Amino acid sequence: MSTTIDHTSALTGRNVPTKGSRATLQKVLLACGIGSSAAYVAANVAGALRGGGYSSVNQSVSELTAIHAPSRPVALPLFVASDVLALAFGTGVVAAAGRNRPLRVAGWLLVGVGVADVVSPFTPMHTRAVLAADETTWTDTAHLTVVSATTLQITGPWDSRPPPSASGSAATRSRRR
Fold first, then answer.
1. Which of 67, 101, 150, 154 has the fewest CB within 10 Å, making it most exposed?
2. Rounded CA gap, 97 and 90, in Å?
3. pTM for the full model?
4. Cα separation of 176 and 135, whole Å?
5. How many whole angstroms from its chain centre is CA 166?
Protein backbone atom coordinates (compact mmCIF):
# COMPACT_ATOMS: atom_id res chain seq x y z
CA MET A 1 0.00 0.00 0.00
CA SER A 2 1.48 3.33 -1.10
CA THR A 3 1.25 6.44 1.04
CA THR A 4 1.37 10.10 0.10
CA ILE A 5 4.83 10.33 1.64
CA ASP A 6 6.05 7.37 -0.46
CA HIS A 7 4.60 9.02 -3.57
CA THR A 8 6.16 12.40 -2.75
CA SER A 9 9.54 10.80 -2.09
CA ALA A 10 9.39 8.97 -5.40
CA LEU A 11 8.49 12.18 -7.31
CA THR A 12 11.00 14.51 -5.66
CA GLY A 13 13.77 12.03 -5.06
CA ARG A 14 14.02 13.38 -1.52
CA ASN A 15 13.36 11.81 1.79
CA VAL A 16 10.27 13.53 3.21
CA PRO A 17 10.23 13.59 7.02
CA THR A 18 7.79 11.16 8.52
CA LYS A 19 5.73 11.76 11.62
CA GLY A 20 8.14 9.59 13.59
CA SER A 21 11.21 11.56 12.50
CA ARG A 22 9.47 14.84 13.36
CA ALA A 23 8.71 13.49 16.81
CA THR A 24 12.35 12.48 17.19
CA LEU A 25 13.51 15.93 16.07
CA GLN A 26 11.11 17.54 18.53
CA LYS A 27 12.51 15.41 21.37
CA VAL A 28 16.07 16.32 20.38
CA LEU A 29 15.18 20.03 20.32
CA LEU A 30 13.54 19.77 23.74
CA ALA A 31 16.57 17.92 25.11
CA CYS A 32 18.67 20.89 24.01
CA GLY A 33 17.20 22.71 27.03
CA ILE A 34 19.13 20.39 29.33
CA GLY A 35 22.29 20.84 27.29
CA SER A 36 21.86 24.61 27.32
CA SER A 37 21.52 24.70 31.08
CA ALA A 38 24.53 22.41 31.54
CA ALA A 39 26.67 24.56 29.23
CA TYR A 40 25.56 27.72 31.04
CA VAL A 41 26.52 26.29 34.43
CA ALA A 42 29.83 25.05 32.99
CA ALA A 43 30.56 28.54 31.60
CA ASN A 44 29.88 30.11 34.98
CA VAL A 45 32.01 27.61 36.90
CA ALA A 46 34.90 27.50 34.40
CA GLY A 47 34.83 31.27 33.97
CA ALA A 48 34.83 31.85 37.72
CA LEU A 49 37.77 29.47 38.17
CA ARG A 50 39.70 31.36 35.49
CA GLY A 51 38.18 34.75 36.27
CA GLY A 52 40.88 36.38 38.34
CA GLY A 53 38.80 37.05 41.43
CA TYR A 54 35.36 36.86 39.82
CA SER A 55 32.52 36.59 42.34
CA SER A 56 29.14 35.38 41.13
CA VAL A 57 27.60 37.12 44.14
CA ASN A 58 29.09 40.57 43.49
CA GLN A 59 29.54 40.63 39.70
CA SER A 60 27.33 40.13 36.70
CA VAL A 61 27.71 37.07 34.52
CA SER A 62 28.49 39.39 31.59
CA GLU A 63 31.81 40.19 33.23
CA LEU A 64 33.00 36.65 32.49
CA THR A 65 33.01 37.47 28.77
CA ALA A 66 34.03 41.13 29.04
CA ILE A 67 36.70 42.43 26.69
CA HIS A 68 40.15 41.57 28.15
CA ALA A 69 38.65 39.53 31.01
CA PRO A 70 40.91 36.56 31.83
CA SER A 71 37.85 34.27 31.81
CA ARG A 72 36.71 35.27 28.29
CA PRO A 73 38.61 32.56 26.32
CA VAL A 74 37.12 29.83 28.53
CA ALA A 75 33.63 31.18 29.19
CA LEU A 76 32.72 32.57 25.76
CA PRO A 77 32.67 29.25 23.81
CA LEU A 78 30.59 27.64 26.56
CA PHE A 79 28.13 30.55 26.58
CA VAL A 80 27.85 30.40 22.76
CA ALA A 81 27.07 26.67 22.99
CA SER A 82 24.48 27.41 25.68
CA ASP A 83 22.92 30.15 23.53
CA VAL A 84 22.63 27.99 20.42
CA LEU A 85 21.16 25.13 22.44
CA ALA A 86 18.69 27.53 24.10
CA LEU A 87 17.54 28.71 20.68
CA ALA A 88 17.04 25.10 19.61
CA PHE A 89 15.11 24.42 22.82
CA GLY A 90 12.79 27.37 22.17
CA THR A 91 12.17 26.02 18.68
CA GLY A 92 11.33 22.64 20.20
CA VAL A 93 8.86 24.22 22.63
CA VAL A 94 7.12 26.01 19.74
CA ALA A 95 6.96 22.73 17.80
CA ALA A 96 5.61 20.83 20.81
CA ALA A 97 3.03 23.48 21.71
CA GLY A 98 0.53 22.60 19.02
CA ARG A 99 -2.67 24.53 19.78
CA ASN A 100 -1.65 25.34 23.36
CA ARG A 101 -1.41 29.12 23.11
CA PRO A 102 0.36 29.82 26.44
CA LEU A 103 3.00 27.21 25.60
CA ARG A 104 3.37 28.63 22.09
CA VAL A 105 3.87 32.14 23.53
CA ALA A 106 6.43 30.78 26.00
CA GLY A 107 8.19 28.98 23.15
CA TRP A 108 8.38 32.12 21.02
CA LEU A 109 9.70 34.09 24.00
CA LEU A 110 12.38 31.42 24.45
CA VAL A 111 13.25 31.74 20.76
CA GLY A 112 13.52 35.51 21.23
CA VAL A 113 15.82 35.04 24.22
CA GLY A 114 17.87 32.56 22.18
CA VAL A 115 18.22 35.03 19.30
CA ALA A 116 19.26 37.83 21.67
CA ASP A 117 21.72 35.50 23.40
CA VAL A 118 23.24 34.38 20.08
CA VAL A 119 23.82 38.07 19.25
CA SER A 120 25.37 38.82 22.66
CA PRO A 121 28.93 37.59 21.85
CA PHE A 122 29.08 40.37 19.26
CA THR A 123 28.22 42.98 21.89
CA PRO A 124 30.66 42.39 24.75
CA MET A 125 31.03 44.80 27.63
CA HIS A 126 34.33 46.11 28.91
CA THR A 127 35.85 45.20 32.25
CA ARG A 128 34.96 47.19 35.37
CA ALA A 129 38.30 49.03 35.23
CA VAL A 130 37.55 50.37 31.75
CA LEU A 131 33.97 51.27 32.67
CA ALA A 132 35.15 53.00 35.87
CA ALA A 133 37.55 55.11 33.79
CA ASP A 134 34.53 56.14 31.67
CA GLU A 135 36.02 54.63 28.52
CA THR A 136 32.86 52.98 27.25
CA THR A 137 32.32 52.21 23.58
CA TRP A 138 29.39 51.31 21.37
CA THR A 139 29.73 47.64 22.40
CA ASP A 140 28.92 48.54 26.00
CA THR A 141 25.74 50.31 24.89
CA ALA A 142 24.87 47.44 22.54
CA HIS A 143 25.48 44.98 25.37
CA LEU A 144 23.04 46.82 27.64
CA THR A 145 20.46 46.82 24.83
CA VAL A 146 20.77 43.06 24.26
CA VAL A 147 20.65 42.31 28.00
CA SER A 148 17.58 44.55 28.36
CA ALA A 149 15.81 42.77 25.50
CA THR A 150 16.58 39.41 27.06
CA THR A 151 15.41 40.53 30.50
CA LEU A 152 12.15 41.92 29.13
CA GLN A 153 11.42 38.66 27.31
CA ILE A 154 12.06 36.66 30.45
CA THR A 155 10.21 38.86 32.94
CA GLY A 156 7.56 40.41 30.69
CA PRO A 157 5.10 37.50 30.82
CA TRP A 158 5.23 37.23 34.61
CA ASP A 159 1.77 37.70 35.99
CA SER A 160 1.81 39.75 39.17
CA ARG A 161 -1.87 39.24 39.92
CA PRO A 162 -2.70 37.04 42.89
CA PRO A 163 -4.12 33.63 42.04
CA PRO A 164 -7.90 33.30 42.16
CA SER A 165 -9.17 32.28 45.57
CA ALA A 166 -10.68 28.87 46.13
CA SER A 167 -13.80 30.45 47.59
CA GLY A 168 -16.60 31.95 45.58
CA SER A 169 -19.87 30.97 44.06
CA ALA A 170 -20.33 27.87 41.94
CA ALA A 171 -20.72 30.10 38.87
CA THR A 172 -17.37 31.77 39.60
CA ARG A 173 -15.67 28.40 40.10
CA SER A 174 -17.07 27.04 36.85
CA ARG A 175 -15.86 30.11 34.91
CA ARG A 176 -12.34 29.52 36.19
CA ARG A 177 -12.21 26.06 34.66
1. 101
2. 11
3. 0.72
4. 55
5. 35
